[in-house]
Amino acid sequence: MRALEIGDAAAVAALVSDPEVIKQTISMTTPFHEGEAERWIRQELEVEDQKHRVLVVEEVRSKALVGTVSVHVKRRFLRRWGTIGYWIGKPYWGRGYGTQALKAFVPYCFDVLEISRFQARVFESNQASQRVLENNGFRRTGRIRLFVPKRGGWRRILLYRLKKPS
Ligand SMILES: CC(C)(COP(=O)(O)OP(=O)(O)OC[C@H]1O[C@@H](n2cnc3c(N)ncnc32)[C@H](O)[C@@H]1OP(=O)(O)O)[C@@H](O)C(=O)NCCC(=O)NCCS
């Protein structure tokens, strides 16, 4: 995993222009083409500090960009809570990359960003993402209905949490 760079726009666009990738994310609304990918990367980098971090997931052998993982941190009382987000490009699904990316990213967030709790929200239909979270120790804590404009209606969302091991 490594820092995101403006030069990643073409590789990001090649993967996030696939509606199948976008469909399952709650925050990304439309597929990206190169200009939008560049704007997205600029926005991500502008807000990057102790409250927001995004990293590229690269394939070890080919060095190809296969996805990204990110966290947005909010302070609640004395604790720092991270909301995690991630995507892996469709050609790379099912190879364990999503699971491995969080295996590296979660301890990094605990240790470097001093996050003490994670939360995640996943469409009930997104079984792959639920497995990625469960493989990394996240615990399901609830189920809500949320109005999701890009899906044009109410959708069931599963809530997950993970606490820093003491
Ligand atoms: C969710 C996502 C990151 C998973 O990435 P991945 O690299 O394919 O995940 P992994 O290879 O680590 O697989 C994780 C588990 O999901 C399972 N899985 C993979 N694709 C699946 C599918 N289409 N349906 C059901 N399970 C699936 C795998 O078998 C594996 O299960 P296991 O741990 O029980 O063996 C990827 O599908 C993706 O980016 N989807 C679109 C964006 C998205 O959903 N982001 C997350 C929003 S909350």
Distance between the termini: 25 Å
- Taken in chain order, the helices and strands follow as EHHHEEEHEHEE
State the CATH topology of the domain at 2-116. Answer: Aminopeptidase
* Widest sheet: strand ordering: 1-2-3-4-5-7-6
Could you say which overall geometry the principal axes of the C-alpha atoms support? globular
- Which percent range fits the helix content? 25-40%
Key phrases:
166 residues; alpha+beta; Aminopeptidase; seven-stranded mixed beta sheet; 5 helices; binds coenzyme A
Give a short synopsis of this structure.
By secondary structure, the protein is α+β, with helices and mostly antiparallel strands. It is 30% helix and 36% strand. It has helices spanning 9-16, 19-23, 34-46, 97-111, 127-135; strands at 2-3, 52-58, 65-76, 79-88, 117-123, 139-148, 153-163.
Describe this structure in words.
The protein is an alpha+beta fold and 166 residues long. The chain has a domain at 2-116: Gcn5-related N-acetyltransferase (GNAT) (Aminopeptidase), CATH 3.40.630.30. The protein is built from five helices and seven strands, in the order E-H-H-H-E-E-E-H-E-H-E-E. The chain has a seven-stranded mixed sheet with strand order 1-2-3-4-5-7-6, sandwiched between helices. Helix 4 (97-111) links the parallel strand 4 and strand 5 (117-123). Helix 1 (9-16) crosses helix 3. Bound molecules: coenzyme A (COA). Coenzyme A binds next to strand 4, helix 4 and helix 5.
